[in-house]
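Subject — a protein and its fold
Fields — amino acid sequence, structure tokens
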Amino acid sequence: MGLPVLAPLTVADLREVAVIERVSFSAPWPTSAYTTELTTNRLARYVGARIGGSLVGFGGIWLMVDEAHITTMAVLPENRRSGVATALLLELLQEARRGGARVATLDVRVSNNEAQRLYRAFGFVEVGRRIRYYDDNGEDALVMTTQELESPEQQATEDRLRSQLQERLRDA
């Protein structure tokens, strides 16, 4: 399969984003929200992952002062557990650094064990809980954050994950 090609999302990608949203989330964002994110939100940065020219995943952050908040991340079901999410998250954390972020944070459903496992592999730790955060079913969200992005420990974690990803894809 090889590494996915990562590039900033554009408005032209939104039809494919909508498909990924619908199959990934019980309360998908409307396309209009992404249009606003991509065209007027100066805090927002979104990255897409393509394989064979098709968008298979995407993720986004908001850069707020010294924090990068991961707003969303999704991968098509048939491309999950293939390294796409790892590649996206590595790129989002690099984008956070380029934007001057000191740490990265995110909210994740308490029931989304697969996503939590990925985030923990990246060094995210639970620092709080948002009670009844999700409108669709009242589910709580875990608040997770990284260590300092420039810390040797965080850098080593990401370097290890990058090497594992490259090895895995080379052997595939």
